[in-house]
Amino acid sequence: MNFFEYQDKARRNSGLLVGLFALALILLVGLTTLVAAAAVSYSRGQAFSPLAIEQLLGWQTVGYIALTIVAIVALGSLYKLHQLAAGGKAVAESLGGRKLNIAPQGPAEQRALNVVEEMAIASGTPVPDVYLIEDPAINAFAAGYKPSDAVIGLTRGCIEQLNRDELQGVVAHEFSHILNGDTRLNISIVGLLNGILIIGLLGHWLVRGVYPNSSNNRGRIPLFALGLALMAVGYAGTLLGNLIKSAVSRQREYLADASAVQFTRNNAGIANALMKIGGYSAGSNLSSGRAAEFSHMFFASGLKRSFFNLFASHPPLAKRIARLEPSWNGHYPSDSSSTAQSQLRKANPAPVAVAGVVEPTPFQMALEAVDNSLACPSEQQVQYGRQLLESIPPAIQQAAHDPFVARALVYHLLLHKDENERQAQEVLLKKIAHPAVVRELQKLAPQLKALPDNARLPLLDLCVPALKALVPQQYQIFKRNLIKLLRSDGKIEIWEWALYRVLMHALEETPDRQRLSNKKGASKDAARFLIAAIAHAGNSEYLPAKRAYEQGLKFLQLEVTPLPGRKDIGLQHLDKAIAIASQMKPLQKPTLLKAMVHTLNHNGVIMAEEIELLRAVADSLDCPMPPIVPQVTSQ
């Protein structure tokens, strides 16, 4: 199953969640109706029979009960979803997390940040915000609606008790949840289940508020009984909620474990991390009062074992370890500082060069990347991501983590390759950008110019967490400056736009709905326009661009229409086309990306910068594309 099939399955799982939620709602309405009928029967001194509900309550009262339950649940769900509208950030802050990206403290925090950055670069995703949860337990989580707003949460125990291979296995597991669309479903579960659980909370508040006392019991006892009834219904809702979590979550943990091994080719890393949890005194149980609410998001169970493990959202540790290490003897190491060694060891991958003369990418390799590499980096790509990160000088990496200086790095990435136009852009920057930002740009320019071309997208991704920390006024000025920089020469180069769009896609969590269109055939028009932009990007002359354009349309089986002129490829039109294309169904997107590969290959050659352009467009379509490990020859 490839990325697009996983995305399609995630959409269907969302439908399953809604179906389970509706079923739970019906059961709660039925249970509440039974409780109300039993109360009426008891007050009349009659024997209660479920068959007598109509005589006891009447259908109108049953309808009122149903409307009341639905209203309470709906309001509780909407309130929680509103609280979590910020995505993964809201979850991490609810658990008391502290963001690490800008100012990691100590070697353990820096190592954790490096591991996450390497995995992000290897996966073709923006670097997520990394949050540290000050808890001795060994645990982690991923949360967010999509890769651009996802966060990785790591506990203090996780970053200090695990070695690098084990930490990499845990982080790869969490990236699998992000890439497979699990994190969006997890937030939906929290919102929907809050509506179910709110009934029990109402009963609890009512019981506490009207607890009978000897001075005045007459008016309190009915309310107290109502509170107890609501608590009983809420208790049933808790069981239903745990059942829903279990139904939706448990199998995905096995899948994420398998994906982590696929990414790293190191079953020992994640298996040993699970063994450490089993033998560690603090285990994986978080002390936060919000742990139960987000329990299904964690790497391992965040709650103490209980009678209701039947409904646990995670499989037992032993079963997960046995799948990863069939020869495991069942022993958990008692000392967390020494991990049982796996018999299946990680092979050291051959080093991958990031400099030199990068040869064109073979056509079939590019098609294979769209089919099988999206959201599924190989061991070699993970190694390549690590080496790409290491190819960026420490001073540049440090600058990428600073909200102030990161702006200078992005400005540099959008400077034109032509020397004359570049000088004009630099003059413009001195007028519109903060003087201190311009000084930082000038200071870092020599090292930035020495960066290999294939480090441009990784550097942009590294800047994302820092730029998210800009206050709204700073961000709006920064965005306005970027647009002025793009339009400074009176035209928009597709290369410049691609970098700009990758950045905006990562920073602007709410899409601009005004760019979408309900017009019939809008997605086909958007595909034509994007193919035209790709054709012009690879060809400076009209006729070769026209041939490339027609080759792409032929693959899409679209009627050939006149090629839009280079001057018609404007910023607003490009943004609108990519916004419409991003709304395509998951199984329609690979066809568009493959058409782009055919367009780039019209002359039989796909250059390295064209592959970077393809990756940038794929990112804007919510299809994270890992870097294609280049074939490199020495100069």
In short:
The chain has 635 residues and is mostly helical. It has 25 helices and six strands.
CATH fold descriptor of the largest domain: Zincin-like
Helix count, per DSSP? 25
Distance between the termini: 40 Å
Structural domain count: 4
- Give the strand order of the largest sheet, numbering strands 1, 2, ... along the chain: 1-2-4-3
Query: What share of the residues lie within helices?
Result: 55-70%
CATH architecture of the largest domain: 2-Layer Sandwich
Q: What's the shape?
A: globular
Main CATH class of the largest domain: Alpha Beta
Radius of gyration: 28 Å
Could you describe the 3D structure shown?
- The protein is mainly α and 635 residues long.
- The protein folds into four domains: 140 residues, no CATH class; 152 residues, Metalloproteases ("zincins"), catalytic domain (Zincin-like, 2-Layer Sandwich), CATH 3.30.2010.10; 136 residues, no CATH class; 99 residues, no CATH class.
- The protein is built from 25 helices and six strands.
- It has a four-stranded mixed β-sheet with strand order 1-2-4-3, with helices on both faces.
- β3 and β4 form a beta hairpin.
- The longest helix has 45 residues.
- The protein is globular, with a radius of gyration of 28 Å.
- The chain starts with a helix and ends with a strand.
- About 2% of the residues have low confidence.
